[in-house]
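User: Structure please.
Assistant: Input sequence and predicted structure:
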Amino acid sequence: MKKNKKILLVVQRSNGDVFLSTSLLSYIYKHFNFPQIDLLVNDDTYMVASLLPFINKIHTFSYKKKSNKRWFQEKEIIKKLFRKYDLSINLTSSDRSVLYALLASKKSISVVEKEYKKSWWKQKLLSKYYYYDSTKHILIQNLTPLSLLDIQHDFIQSSIEIKNETFERVKNRLDKKGIKNFIIFHPSAQYKYKIYPKASRDKLIAFLSKLGISIVVTGTNNKIDTEIKLNLPSLPNIFDLIGETSLEEYFALSSLSHAFIGMDTLNMHIASAQNKRIFAIFGPTKLSMWSPWSNQLQVSATDDKPVQSYGNVTIFQADMPCVACGNAGCDDNHGKSDCLYNISPRLVFKEIEDWYKKISS
């Protein structure tokens, strides 16, 4: 296996999945003595993928092209991948991603579904495989290929190295706004069913305004974030940076912050990898896979509780029997999540206030 000099990593899921492959990449790069590592990701995660370390080339799959020119795209991707690699590792159990891994290399490792009816052919054709397990954190699952390759490792979520000029650019922007010490509040997420409702968000922002430290509100320039920006209260100590940073600049901003407050999203995992103090508001998402990873303790949350803390992390959930259902909203179709309407902003603030008093005294 030490002779593997060309390796393909397939991650066809969300931005968070791509980012949470960073530790795996680091171990592979060191173990195989600086191999050429290529990525295959969905095109909507390209910006995250472009920041990952040790990557030579990024192949992309487009769901838009799939609906317009499906077979042409498949043909082009297979042409680029076919038997071009000494080893392929796939972190996504979909049929398409497994096929890409199988076609890319004679030595292929992949996650597969536990249901034998779905994965029998994958188990027979792959060199090595492991089971997708929603009771295990995504970081632990993403590092499983290392065990199959007999590569020793710990369970630390790595961050991404940011260029000095990016840090300087962000620092200059903060200086112009008079921001020195600050906490990030990230109220948005990729999907609306994960977002704290406006009335609760406004109350929390009003509380945070009186905390005694700058609160930097972050987000992108997409439709969801822009709507939040347009309705953001104008209050002392609240600084609106929604849509004003690139993804790389956000990594720098997060690194400079004292803490992260916000939703279950990529930004939360960035803060986790940077060992920041985290206050995460969770809706229907299952904690076992997606709770913030604590590098301090090398653990995540597994049980649902209204408030729980471990290491540098505090998580808030609704005290409801259905939490956490794992659905995409109560209708499982990206609709409203009732649980998020049942998390008290005063309770969230109380935990933040108690922490801040301790560190500032």
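The two ends are 54 Å apart (CA to CA).
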